[in-house]
Amino acid sequence: MTAYFAPTRDMQFVINELAGLAEVAALPAFAGQEVGPELVEAVLEEAARLATEVLAPLNKTGDVQGARIGPEGVIPTDGFAEAYRSFIEGGWNGISSHADYGGQGLPELFNTAAQEMWNSANMSFALCPMLNAGAIEAISRVGSEEQKALYLPKMISGEWTGTMNLTESQAGSDLSAVRTRAVPEGDHYRIFGQKIFITWGEHNMTPNTIHLVLARTPDAPEGVKGISLFIVPKVLVNPDGSLGARNDVHAVSIEHKLGIHASPTCVMAFGDRDGAVGYRVGEENKGLAYMFIMMNEARFKVGLQGLAIGERAYQAAREYAKDRVQGRPVGVKSGDRVTIIHHPDVRRMLLTMKAQNEAMRALTYTVAAHMDLARHHPDAATRAIHQARVDLLIPVAKGWCTEIGIEIASLGVQVHGGMGFVEETGACQHLRDSRITTIYEGTTGIQAADLAGRKLNMDRGAAMRALIADIEATVAELGHVAGDDLATIRDHLRDGSRALAEATDWMLGARDADSVMAVSVDYLMLAGYVCGGWQLARAARVAQAKLTTGQDPVFHEAKLITARFYAEHVLPRAGALLRSVRSGGASIMALTEEQF
């Protein structure tokens, strides 16, 4: 079993120096809370304690034992219920939720760092509050005042959990094919249908689960324009908030999966008897738009899972490399053998893991800060600017971070060598758990289609060009700073920025939709590598300034070296991806169906 220790020093560096804590702290929404470096440190230390001491030790247990289903429903892994009580007693479930409903009202930036820890420590466990967060966000944004008052306090506290019930066996990612029915009956509806792949759809850790369900009313039009959203409680809730009768909804089975064994992925049946009682959220036939509120919340947090698993895999590989004695240094034929961290190729793998983790952390935390500014800035025009950046980068954060997370988990197995291929080291679990992240909440292809087909065309590339302008501003700033490391980073970042600009022009100028979609994943990955390089270049600039004053030289020198490694050995991937984008989809679309 691999241990986990939250990288709080790097988290603090990113929050304080890169993500713009001071600007977030100045927002009126956080007035009087003293949202500064001291609070950051205190929150991270407490979160790290829970992650390290309570959640991480259950990670292997959950992998081996898994969730189970019996006559009484779904039974979580041993120890999960106690861990969940510790989690909600600490107030972690509502860290960034509105104080009016019992949340702590802290910035999303704080919640993002905590989410990284929960997912690194125990991704299966973290999925339960993650799905709840999406349901909370949807009810907060489009629920009625009565629905907010009835459901939000207990969902935010964690006394109840929430789920998203979107897809069905015949639909997959095509929600226009949803068939679940919602039949009006007085002040509520009767829901009939079956949903699949419902994460934490049932469990006994809380007395109630609030399902958000996509369904069609009798006169709804076909396709996505006919979908509505409904609250369907596992146990009906009386007007005073007390629990009533059991609703007609239950899990009929749980999936047997490659990874995240302790997270029950349920097939949920609604209306096997008289129909499950449901309450419409918002307007009829607007369910798809409401779904995206939940989906964007989930997609961002799944992107964090790529970082989280990458960090856990890196820590395991690093410690193994420091401990495993094998071989002598290159060119040395006698004498003592050394630990494998002395071998150049192992260092290459470890630095590839470390550098990309730090790039992902800086990117995702920066997106979280933009979320805070988009939600809480007093000026509407400023909120719109930050929301445009969030909308642009969520598919990048989800798609790129999860793809890189799998790469890092695979490298973790490789660093362990043969021992990585056996379960005892824990490296296998990280790879197996990470594999789902590029699939659920929208595959990498769906993220790429969103970026290249929707986000770029919504404003004809204005948001992307604004991002590129910010990257080029960093290039210009590095041109005025002395140091070979920064000069190298600057030159490679300039090349990456130009590659992203040229690829963007190609995507916007392409006439054939198939060609755009055929290279959309390459475009998304190119954007991710360049954004990661941009953030590490910013980190290097800060680190160089800290080194001149003698502040924490070991940490800041490592930041500078890591950023240079990324610029020299990771960022050049952008150039290759540009060539692929320019090639278009001719060869991709050329084979007939029979030729495959």
Can you walk me through this structure?
By secondary structure, this protein is an alpha+beta fold. The protein is 57% helix and 11% strand. It contains 18 helices and twelve strands. It has helices spanning 8-18, 21-25, 37-55, 57-65, 80-89, 108-142, 145-157, 287-323, 344-376, 380-416, 427-434, 444-458, 462-478, 484-509, 513-518, 520-548, 553-569, 573-583; strands spanning 68-70, 73-75, 161-165, 181-185, 188-199, 209-215, 228-233, 235-237, 243-246, 249-254, 265-270, 276-281. Strands 3, 4, 5, 6, 7, 10, 11 and 12 form an eight-stranded mixed sheet that branches. β1 (68-70) and β2 form a beta hairpin. α4 crosses α6 (108-142), α10 runs antiparallel to α12 (444-458) and α13 (462-478) packs antiparallel against α14 (484-509). The longest helix has 37 residues, at 287-323. It is globular.
Short description:
This protein has 596 residues and is an alpha+beta fold. The protein has 18 helices and 12 strands. The chain is 57% helix and 11% strand.
